[in-house]
Amino acid sequence: MNTRGKRNFKNRTVVSPDTSPTSKLRVELTRMKLIAIAFHSGYGHTAKVAGIVAEGAASVEGTRVVSLAVDKVEEPIEEFANGWDLLQAADAIIFGTPTYMGGPSAPFKVFADASSKVWFGQGWKDKYAAGFTNSLTLSGDKSSTLTYLFTLASQHSMVWISQGVPHEGLTPESVNRFGAWSGLMTQSDNLPPEQTPSEGDIETAKRFGARIATFVVNH
């Protein structure tokens, strides 16, 4: 009998591909771009903005968004052992902080200083970065805070993404009413977060999140 060209599959184990829902979810998450929003909020207003930015980012197909309150960076979050592990896994980090006395809040600065451990190994090098800030007054020297966030990202050798949302007017209902380009600026009145920032600022935050996510997915 001529057996030339035939393969002997005796005693060979044939492994079928894993088509379980868990496996499919794992593959899907692997292909998605992970965007982390690392923020501090003193009274809930910046947290609200962070949520809107996350909503905008999550609206872009191919993204997964996880929000991290930086004062809880040492605690477990979702499947990550702590916030540092989340940030290490992220393709992009969007930094957010209120502007207090012309700069970032003290808890955010504590987080930023602690990130020096990552800096020594340049663990965030070439990740994408962006930033946003919120204040009580229309100016509040928010540009100083955005400059600080840009500098922080640059220290980590990250690639900064600007806001890229057109200025459409000066009223509270207008998109990018502050004409901010380096990052997102919002303003909250001395009211509960349920009532402020304005609709224009909320829409700007949503577009900002979508712009960051779109850029990350396409690069």
* Helix coverage percent: 25-40%
Low-confidence stretches: 5-10
| Cα shape | globular
Cα Rg: 22 Å
CATH third-level topology: Rossmann fold
* Beta-strand share of residues: 15-25%
- CATH architecture identity: 3-Layer(aba) Sandwich
- Quote the distance from N terminus to C terminus: 58 Å
> CATH superfamily name?
Flavodoxin domain
| N-to-C order of helices and strands | HEHEHEEHHEHEEH
Name the structural class: alpha/beta
Question: Any idea of the CATH class?
Answer: Alpha Beta
Tally the helices: 7
Number of strands: 7
> What's the domain count?
1
Average residue pLDDT: 90
Describe the largest sheet.
Answer: 7 strands, mixed
What does this structure look like?
There is one protein chain. This protein has 219 residues and is α/β, with parallel strands linked by helices. It has one domain: 3-Layer(aba) Sandwich (Rossmann fold). It has helices spanning 21-31, 45-58, 83-89, 106-114, 116-120, 142-155, 199-217, and strands at 33-39, 63-69, 92-100, 103-104, 128-135, 159-160, 184-187. Strands 1, 2, 3, 4, 5, 6 and 7 form a 7-stranded mixed β-sheet that branches. The longest helix is centred in the C-terminal third of the chain and has 19 residues, at 199-217.
